[in-house]
């Protein structure tokens, strides 16, 4: 029985990072600058460090303050150049995540950022989901829920709990993944400020 290998899975399983240290540092610095600029009421104008950072990519920005989650917002689809998507998602995570009050100026020095750059979405069967490798997007009856690959690892979940919690995030029955929900996966390259 032969198995087909999804190109995104092949990239994710390799240990070689897609982005260089300089590109990672640039994107993290850009996220910090964007938040500081938004709080000061000014826009930042930067050009991408390398052509790769100008390619459209999906990205999620997660913000922590003193070790606590402070915001997480992203784009699943590659609708903007990566460097611009980072500035947009960083500002949105800091100021528009409805679960939290907006980040304030006094918090700026305590903020730590994690960026997850996403692969393209690909269809996946429940039994193919690998905890720690795949992020999930579940669509069911017009609702969608997404969890990044690191979430089940951080929470200590196995595959079934990961599927159930992604359904829960979509506000659909936890067993919707067994009853016709569309399952899509992605991989991500995640990097963060050194203090995380």
Describe the structure.
There is one protein chain. This protein has 196 residues and is of the alpha+beta class. The chain has two domains: 19-118, 2-Layer Sandwich (Glycoprotein, Type 4 Pilin), CATH 3.30.700.20; 122-188, Hypothetical protein ph0010, domain 2 (Dna Ligase, domain 1, 2-Layer Sandwich). Helices cover 30% and strands 24% of the residues. It contains five helices and eight strands. The strands form two sheets. A four-stranded antiparallel beta sheet has the order 2-1-3-8, with helices on one face. Helix 2 (21-40) packs across helix 3. The longest helix has 20 residues, at 21-40. It is globular and about 50 Å long. The relative contact order is 0.17. Mean pLDDT is 90; it is low at 1-14.
What's a concise summary of this model?
The protein has helices at 7-13, 21-40, 82-95, 150-155, 159-169, and strands at residues 58-65, 68-75, 111-118, 122-123, 135-140, 143-147, 182-186, 188-192.
Main features:
single chain, 196 residues, alpha+beta, Glycoprotein, Type 4 Pilin, Dna Ligase, domain 1, 2 domains, four-stranded antiparallel sheet, 30% helix, 24% strand, globular
């Amino acid at each position: 029985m032969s198995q087909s290998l999804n190109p995104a899975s092949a990239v994710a399983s390799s240990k070689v990072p897609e982005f260089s240290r300089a590109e990672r540092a640039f994107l993290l610095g850009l996220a910090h600058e964007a938040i500081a600029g938004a709080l000061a009421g000014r826009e930042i104008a930067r050009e991408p460090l390398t052509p790769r950072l100008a390619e459209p990519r999906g990205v999620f920005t997660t913000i922590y303050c003193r070790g606590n989650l402070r915001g997480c917002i992203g784009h699943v689809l590659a609708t903007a150049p990566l460097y611009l998507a980072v500035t947009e998602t960083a500002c949105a995570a800091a100021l528009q995540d409805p679960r939290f009050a907006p980040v304030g100026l006094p918090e700026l020095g305590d903020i730590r950022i994690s960026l997850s750059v996403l692969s393209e979405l690909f269809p996946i069967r429940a039994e193919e989901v690998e905890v720690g490798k795949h992020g999930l997007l579940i669509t069911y009856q017009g609702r969608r829920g997404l969890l990044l690959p690191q979430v089940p690892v951080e929470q200590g979940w196995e595959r079934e709990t990961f599927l159930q919690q992604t359904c829960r995030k979509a506000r659909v029955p936890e067993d919707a993944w067994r009853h016709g929900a569309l399952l899509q996966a992605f991989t991500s390259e995640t990097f963060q400020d050194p203090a995380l």
